[in-house]
Design goal:
7-stranded mixed β-sheet, 30% helix, Rossmann fold, 272 residues, alpha/beta
Length: 272
């Protein structure tokens, strides 16, 4: 296993347990209410359209809340993740909610070795996923390989411009790279993006940036056609401390003049 995969998997294994117990992932709401879907999926319902009857795969599915939400909307879902603890929590969620989802353990770049090529109507990727991948072109080739002709990719993710920024004493500055580089950005940070009392020990992560242009070009080169690109002024977690406020739907945007910043994007593409 590549070093970055081992390092990041240890981090996500530890996050999975904390996330499943955190109110931020609303696992208890899923159990109590059979109609409940995640805020992430709900945000994009106007763009997602109907998925009823479609065969979908959720890449980097984590603990399965978005995957379960898509299944509740009628999709026949498979979830793929490289973290065994994440998949343990995901399977627990579907068992407790009597939801059928197939879960497969693999990293994204190995997806075509464990899933049938060209067998999906929908490849779904939720927010905060692409930064964990070193090569966006290889990701795009994987996405295209999973889809049959006419199948679509649906992804909402952190806007790469937001990914470059840091905030300190109310001042926002460009700090991290916007474009993909071979070497990872190495972070050593405790805590996570949802409320938890857990004290983390696997705190080092390796991450990469991918510009919006690089992502779109990679998809075009892989034989995909871009059908929709929407930029949003909000993101589902407090990405910049002290300069963002949350709304009633759990979305965070700049407190002062939110229209200054594209915080996330939703992209759709179909395989030709």
């Amino acid at each position: 296993m590549d070093e970055y995969l081992a390092i990041n998997r240890a981090n996500w294994d530890e996050r999975a347990r904390a996330h499943s117990a955190s109110p931020g992932y609303a696992v208890e709401r899923f159990i109590e209410d059979p109609t409940f879907i995640s805020d992430v999926v709900r945000f994009d319902l106007p763009r997602l359209g109907t998925v009823d009857g479609s065969t979908g795969v959720h890449l980097q599915c984590h603990i399965g809340t978005d995957t379960t939400s898509l299944a509740r909307l009628g999709a026949n879902m498979t979830g793929l993740d490289f973290s065994p603890e994440s998949l343990h929590q995901a399977r627990r969620l579907t068992e407790l909610t009597s939801t059928f989802v197939r879960f497969v353990e693999a990293d994204v770049y190995s997806a075509l070795t464990v899933l049938e090529r060209g067998s999906f109507d929908l490849v779904y990727t939720g927010i905060g996923a692409l930064c964990w991948l070193p090569d966006i072109a290889r990701w795009a080739q994987t996405v295209a390989g999973l889809l049959h002709p006419g199948g679509r990719l649906f992804i909402r993710d952190l806007h790469p411009m937001l990914g470059t920024l840091v905030a300190c004493d109310g001042v926002i500055a460009v700090e991290d790279p916007y474009f993909e580089r071979p070497q990872p950005m190495v972070f050593d940070e405790g805590g996570t993006y949802v409320e938890t009392d857990h004290v983390f020990t696997a705190t080092v992560t390796h991450q990469w940036s991918h510009s919006l242009g690089e992502t779109i070009t990679a998809l075009l080169d892989a034989g995909m056609q871009l059908t929709s690109l929407v930029e949003h002024d909000s993101v589902p977690w407090r990405a910049l401390k002290d300069v963002m406020a949350v709304d009633e739907h759990g979305e965070w945007r700049l407190t002062d003049r939110a229209s200054r910043l594209a915080a996330s994007f939703t992209l759709q593409a179909v395989r030709l």
